[in-house]
Amino acid sequence: MINLDGRVAIVTGGVQGIGLGVSLSLARAGANVVLAELVEERIPAAVAEIEEVGVQALGVQTDVTDASSVDQMVCATLERFGQIDILVNNAGLVIKKHISEQTEADYDAVLGTNLKGTFLCCMRVVEEMRKRNTGAIVNLASQAAFRYTIPHVPMLPRRQALSR
Ligand SMILES: NC(=O)c1ccc[n+]([C@@H]2O[C@H](COP(=O)([O-])OP(=O)(O)OC[C@H]3O[C@@H](n4cnc5c(N)ncnc54)[C@H](O)[C@@H]3O)[C@@H](O)[C@H]2O)c1
Protein backbone atom coordinates (compact mmCIF):
# COMPACT_ATOMS: atom_id res chain seq x y z
CA MET A 1 0.00 0.00 0.00
CA ILE A 2 1.27 3.49 -0.88
CA ASN A 3 1.77 5.74 2.14
CA LEU A 4 -0.24 8.96 1.72
CA ASP A 5 -0.05 10.11 5.35
CA GLY A 6 -0.69 13.86 5.56
CA ARG A 7 -1.56 14.21 1.87
CA VAL A 8 -4.74 15.90 0.72
CA ALA A 9 -6.86 14.42 -2.06
CA ILE A 10 -9.88 15.93 -3.82
CA VAL A 11 -12.27 13.40 -5.34
CA THR A 12 -15.05 14.86 -7.48
CA GLY A 13 -18.29 12.94 -7.12
CA GLY A 14 -16.51 10.90 -4.46
CA VAL A 15 -19.59 10.05 -2.39
CA GLN A 16 -20.84 6.92 -4.15
CA GLY A 17 -19.92 4.22 -6.64
CA ILE A 18 -16.38 4.24 -8.00
CA GLY A 19 -15.70 7.67 -6.44
CA LEU A 20 -16.46 6.46 -2.92
CA GLY A 21 -14.26 3.41 -3.51
CA VAL A 22 -11.42 5.70 -4.64
CA SER A 23 -11.99 8.01 -1.65
CA LEU A 24 -11.87 5.10 0.81
CA SER A 25 -8.71 3.72 -0.80
CA LEU A 26 -7.00 7.11 -0.51
CA ALA A 27 -8.17 7.38 3.11
CA ARG A 28 -6.86 3.88 3.96
CA ALA A 29 -3.50 4.97 2.53
CA GLY A 30 -3.55 7.91 4.99
CA ALA A 31 -4.78 10.84 2.86
CA ASN A 32 -7.28 13.40 4.06
CA VAL A 33 -10.11 13.49 1.51
CA VAL A 34 -12.22 16.30 0.09
CA LEU A 35 -15.49 15.16 -1.46
CA ALA A 36 -16.53 17.64 -4.17
CA GLU A 37 -20.09 16.52 -4.84
CA LEU A 38 -23.07 18.05 -6.63
CA VAL A 39 -25.85 16.42 -4.58
CA GLU A 40 -25.53 17.81 -1.06
CA GLU A 41 -27.61 15.10 0.65
CA ARG A 42 -25.11 12.43 -0.44
CA ILE A 43 -22.21 14.09 1.35
CA PRO A 44 -22.67 13.45 5.14
CA ALA A 45 -22.81 9.63 4.99
CA ALA A 46 -19.70 9.51 2.80
CA VAL A 47 -17.83 11.93 5.08
CA ALA A 48 -18.69 9.71 8.08
CA GLU A 49 -17.58 6.55 6.25
CA ILE A 50 -14.22 8.08 5.35
CA GLU A 51 -13.62 9.50 8.85
CA GLU A 52 -14.20 6.00 10.28
CA VAL A 53 -10.92 5.08 8.56
CA GLY A 54 -9.16 7.59 10.85
CA VAL A 55 -8.43 10.48 8.47
CA GLN A 56 -10.17 13.82 8.04
CA ALA A 57 -12.86 14.28 5.41
CA LEU A 58 -14.37 17.51 4.11
CA GLY A 59 -17.53 17.54 2.00
CA VAL A 60 -18.03 20.54 -0.26
CA GLN A 61 -21.14 20.91 -2.38
CA THR A 62 -19.65 21.53 -5.84
CA ASP A 63 -20.79 21.72 -9.43
CA VAL A 64 -17.74 20.85 -11.52
CA THR A 65 -19.34 22.42 -14.60
CA ASP A 66 -19.20 25.85 -12.93
CA ALA A 67 -15.81 27.59 -12.59
CA SER A 68 -16.87 29.69 -9.58
CA SER A 69 -18.14 26.58 -7.76
CA VAL A 70 -14.85 24.79 -8.45
CA ASP A 71 -12.94 27.84 -7.20
CA GLN A 72 -14.98 27.88 -3.96
CA MET A 73 -14.29 24.17 -3.44
CA VAL A 74 -10.54 24.69 -3.92
CA CYS A 75 -10.57 27.67 -1.52
CA ALA A 76 -12.46 25.61 1.09
CA THR A 77 -9.88 22.82 0.69
CA LEU A 78 -6.96 25.20 1.17
CA GLU A 79 -8.63 26.86 4.14
CA ARG A 80 -9.08 23.50 5.87
CA PHE A 81 -5.92 21.64 4.82
CA GLY A 82 -3.55 24.24 3.33
CA GLN A 83 -2.51 22.11 0.35
CA ILE A 84 -3.71 19.86 -2.46
CA ASP A 85 -1.64 16.80 -3.40
CA ILE A 86 -4.07 14.70 -5.44
CA LEU A 87 -7.04 15.44 -7.69
CA VAL A 88 -9.27 12.61 -8.91
CA ASN A 89 -11.68 13.74 -11.63
CA ASN A 90 -14.33 11.09 -11.05
CA ALA A 91 -17.63 13.02 -11.40
CA GLY A 92 -19.26 11.76 -14.55
CA LEU A 93 -22.61 11.61 -16.24
CA VAL A 94 -24.05 9.09 -18.70
CA ILE A 95 -27.46 9.57 -20.31
CA LYS A 96 -28.59 6.19 -21.55
CA LYS A 97 -30.88 7.16 -24.40
CA HIS A 98 -30.69 6.49 -28.12
CA ILE A 99 -29.13 9.47 -29.90
CA SER A 100 -32.43 10.12 -31.70
CA GLU A 101 -34.08 10.70 -28.32
CA GLN A 102 -31.35 12.87 -26.84
CA THR A 103 -31.62 16.64 -26.57
CA GLU A 104 -29.11 19.43 -26.86
CA ALA A 105 -29.45 19.84 -23.08
CA ASP A 106 -28.46 16.17 -22.62
CA TYR A 107 -25.37 16.74 -24.76
CA ASP A 108 -24.41 19.86 -22.80
CA ALA A 109 -24.91 18.06 -19.46
CA VAL A 110 -22.73 15.08 -20.44
CA LEU A 111 -19.94 17.07 -22.08
CA GLY A 112 -20.18 19.76 -19.39
CA THR A 113 -19.60 17.24 -16.60
CA ASN A 114 -17.24 14.76 -18.23
CA LEU A 115 -15.04 17.13 -20.23
CA LYS A 116 -15.50 20.73 -19.07
CA GLY A 117 -15.73 19.64 -15.43
CA THR A 118 -12.44 17.78 -15.70
CA PHE A 119 -10.86 20.76 -17.48
CA LEU A 120 -12.07 23.29 -14.88
CA CYS A 121 -10.89 21.20 -11.92
CA CYS A 122 -7.49 20.56 -13.54
CA MET A 123 -7.08 24.22 -14.44
CA ARG A 124 -7.79 25.46 -10.91
CA VAL A 125 -5.98 22.72 -9.00
CA VAL A 126 -2.87 22.85 -11.20
CA GLU A 127 -2.58 26.52 -10.26
CA GLU A 128 -2.15 25.41 -6.63
CA MET A 129 0.04 22.38 -7.43
CA ARG A 130 2.46 24.53 -9.43
CA LYS A 131 3.05 26.75 -6.38
CA ARG A 132 4.45 23.70 -4.54
CA ASN A 133 5.84 22.05 -7.69
CA THR A 134 4.16 18.77 -6.80
CA GLY A 135 0.88 16.94 -7.26
CA ALA A 136 -0.89 14.12 -9.07
CA ILE A 137 -4.06 14.13 -11.16
CA VAL A 138 -6.12 11.09 -12.13
CA ASN A 139 -8.87 11.41 -14.74
CA LEU A 140 -11.43 8.64 -15.02
CA ALA A 141 -12.67 7.62 -18.46
CA SER A 142 -14.68 4.75 -19.86
CA GLN A 143 -14.34 2.09 -22.49
CA ALA A 144 -17.80 3.33 -23.53
CA ALA A 145 -15.82 5.90 -25.56
CA PHE A 146 -15.18 3.07 -28.02
CA ARG A 147 -18.80 1.98 -28.24
CA TYR A 148 -21.31 2.91 -30.90
CA THR A 149 -24.42 4.72 -29.69
CA ILE A 150 -26.59 2.60 -32.00
CA PRO A 151 -28.38 -0.17 -30.05
CA HIS A 152 -27.80 -3.80 -31.03
CA VAL A 153 -24.32 -3.03 -32.39
CA PRO A 154 -21.88 -5.02 -30.25
CA MET A 155 -18.92 -3.30 -28.69
CA LEU A 156 -15.79 -3.63 -30.79
CA PRO A 157 -12.60 -4.96 -29.25
CA ARG A 158 -10.56 -1.92 -28.25
CA ARG A 159 -7.78 -2.51 -30.82
CA GLN A 160 -10.32 -2.77 -33.65
CA ALA A 161 -12.18 0.36 -32.51
CA LEU A 162 -8.96 2.35 -32.43
CA SER A 163 -8.00 1.32 -35.98
CA ARG A 164 -11.26 2.67 -37.48
N1 LIG B 1 -19.93 2.66 -13.42
C1 LIG B 1 -19.27 2.19 -14.47
O1 LIG B 1 -19.49 1.07 -14.94
C2 LIG B 1 -18.20 3.05 -15.12
C3 LIG B 1 -17.46 2.48 -16.14
C4 LIG B 1 -16.45 3.25 -16.73
C5 LIG B 1 -16.20 4.53 -16.30
N2 LIG B 1 -16.94 5.07 -15.31
C6 LIG B 1 -16.64 6.43 -14.90
O2 LIG B 1 -16.31 6.43 -13.52
C7 LIG B 1 -16.82 7.62 -12.90
C8 LIG B 1 -17.73 7.25 -11.73
O3 LIG B 1 -18.75 6.40 -12.20
P1 LIG B 1 -19.90 5.87 -11.23
O4 LIG B 1 -20.69 4.88 -11.98
O5 LIG B 1 -19.30 5.50 -9.91
O6 LIG B 1 -20.77 7.22 -11.11
P2 LIG B 1 -22.02 7.56 -10.16
O7 LIG B 1 -23.08 8.13 -11.03
O8 LIG B 1 -22.36 6.43 -9.25
O9 LIG B 1 -21.40 8.74 -9.26
C9 LIG B 1 -21.00 9.94 -9.85
C10 LIG B 1 -21.09 11.03 -8.81
O10 LIG B 1 -20.71 12.25 -9.45
C11 LIG B 1 -21.62 13.25 -9.04
N3 LIG B 1 -21.72 14.33 -10.02
C12 LIG B 1 -22.40 14.32 -11.20
N4 LIG B 1 -22.31 15.52 -11.79
C13 LIG B 1 -21.56 16.30 -10.98
C14 LIG B 1 -21.14 17.65 -11.04
N5 LIG B 1 -21.50 18.45 -12.06
N6 LIG B 1 -20.36 18.15 -10.05
C15 LIG B 1 -19.99 17.34 -8.99
N7 LIG B 1 -20.39 16.06 -8.86
C16 LIG B 1 -21.16 15.54 -9.85
C17 LIG B 1 -22.96 12.52 -8.90
O11 LIG B 1 -23.89 13.26 -8.11
C18 LIG B 1 -22.52 11.21 -8.27
O12 LIG B 1 -22.51 11.28 -6.86
C19 LIG B 1 -17.54 8.40 -13.99
O13 LIG B 1 -16.67 9.38 -14.51
C20 LIG B 1 -17.85 7.36 -15.03
O14 LIG B 1 -17.92 7.90 -16.35
C21 LIG B 1 -17.93 4.35 -14.71
UniProtKB/TrEMBL annotation:
Enzyme class, broadest EC rank: oxidoreductase
Cross-referenced InterPro entries: NAD(P)-bd_dom_sf, SDR, SDR_fam
GO molecular function annotations of the record: 3-oxoacyl-[acyl-carrier-protein] reductase (NADPH) activity
The protein's Enzyme Commission number: 1.1.1.100
Reactions accelerated catalytically: a (3R)-hydroxyacyl-[ACP] + NADP(+) = a 3-oxoacyl-[ACP] + NADPH + H(+)
UniProt cross-references to Pfam families, sorted A to Z: adh_short
Family classification: Belongs to the short-chain dehydrogenases/reductases (SDR) family.
Protein name as annotated: 3-oxoacyl-[acyl-carrier-protein] reductase
Organism encoding this protein: Geodia barretti
